[in-house]
Amino acid sequence: MxxxxxxxxxxxxxxxxxVVLVLVLTSLFCAAYTLRHPRRALVYISAVALAVAFLAVxxxxxxxxxxxxxxxxxxxxxxSIVGGGPAAQLVLALASRGSxxxxxxxxxxxxxxxxxxxxxxxxxxxxxGGTFIGYLERLATTGAIMAGFPEAIAxxxxxxxxxxxxxxxxxxxxxxxIIGTLVSLIWASVCAGVFRLAVA
Length: 200
Description:
Helix content is 72%, strand content 6%. By secondary structure, it is mainly alpha-helical. It has one domain. Helix 1 runs antiparallel to helix 2, helix 2 packs parallel to helix 6 and helix 4 (130-146) packs parallel to helix 6. The longest helix is centred in the N-terminal third of the chain and has 35 residues, at 2-36. The two termini are 33 Å apart.
């Protein structure tokens, strides 16, 4: 009976961390697949797998072996960068319900006010490059939390706000900026949280 108990004590932690890693990798695969083939169901699966991984590591459990910490760190960083985009796009689509027109460069097209030079107004694309900025934002957020320096997020938000300030005149742009940023930061924070809880 004793060898089985010893075997369970050895294999239990390995199995636990293997399941956590599989959950994170499942979330990463689903998120990565949606980049080329958008599927709402896969975004939901990705979010649920990430949430289950977070809850699993939040409950006190066995200590993670060093290799699990490394693999988990690399995986959650990749998941943060890749997965936050589809999650933000899904939430924005649910919030706007098709009321905004997508631009050619990743932004949205808004109507401009009439001016003396343009009495009929016009349209322009705002929040261009949001996808790439989102990648950088989530990389910085997750990296800061993983490194134990979450205060850097305040600097990141300030830089992003100043950089986008001139584009936030229209209500649609403000709404998209706020919702997209919050979803992106929440996703990145949960990913980083999985790592921080695993190494705690």
